[in-house]
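Chapter summary example.
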Amino acid sequence: ADSLARGADGAVLAVADAAPEIVGALLAAHAAGEDGGARAIQERLRPLAGCLGPRYGVAGIKAALDLRGWPGGGSPRAPLEPVGAEGRREIAAALEAAGVEVGTPGGAR
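The structure predicted for these 109 residues follows.
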């Protein structure tokens, strides 16, 4: 949201892989001139961005896709290791905090 407010046209966001509808809402709020709304959405996304970027990286993105029941998840390629159960719970909580429905067939919530 801050980058958009300063004139950025876009960004490459790990969080957009797992929560495109929320990122889209942020972009729509910005485009409508609702900078306060865009910043509020950004705050909801902050924990998820932390999980999927610096904390778990590619493996975290794949776990988030699994948690949403979407294609593209699974195990990352070597030498990366999959996110463990505790990390998956953290990612699930961050997805839910962002306003994303979580639940996979047979998956953890």
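To summarize the output: The two ends are 29 Å apart (CA to CA).
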